[in-house]
Amino acid sequence: MSRSNVSTAVLFTPAGQTEESAPDLSVLGAVRAGWEAFREAIPFYALLGLIMLVVLTALSYLAMIIIGIPLLWIFGAGVTVTGLHLIRRDAALTSPFCGFPKFLPVLGAAALITLLIGMVILIFALPYWLFGMMDAGTGRTILLIFSFIILVAGVLAAVWLQGRLLLTFPLIIEQDSGIIDALKTSWHQTATAQWKLVGALLLIGLVIDAGLLLCGIGIILSFPLGLAMQGSCIDQLLEGGSGDAGTGSALNINDPKPVIQYD
Length: 263
Hints:
Blueprint: H1 3-12, H2 27-40, H3 42-62, H4 68-87, H5 103-132, H6 138-164, H7 168-175, H8 179-189, H9 194-214, H10 219-239
């Protein structure tokens, strides 16, 4: 292991734990668990999906105003945790708003994660932008193609980073962790499954986008379905489960999993 890798491991790994102790991830298990949870309560998923999309759309418009940006971040964190609630069968129509009681730590974590992911994309996008300013010619075309490949790699790197930090909001909202502790724990828990998470997040994105491409209204169902699949990934990494349900030992999370509440 190189010195830089050792430094990163020390920085992001919680005390007393190693990257080798991180749980693995079953992507197919996440898909299966998300689908089973979805089939059990399709009307609830549709209503919850409609609520989340309406609020996200409204906040997206407000995002042009300064106050809308933090609200969008807080609600987005709640949407992430909603996927975990769905897979645990304890979701309620108020689940997407669960980030607001932890407003300041969630806001700080969201700002930090947005900054990190934004920097990754910017670094990889810079060559494409610079070569695009060159005069037309064969050399410019070749450089643009090469820089576009770099840009795609940057998007994948951003997805990878998103996966490594996926557990941050659930840890802050559900476990009352501090920002740094949540980031460290998320980095540790996703170490073993980091590349599976890239595939899982890309698959989840395709599921959500399919609802939009096939039929605009279909995203009302595909959005919460994708969240449930993501929630299963979070549940596995937090609890060390198999994908069907959290079995609970990695972080001593033994919360009950009651049926979905239709309120």
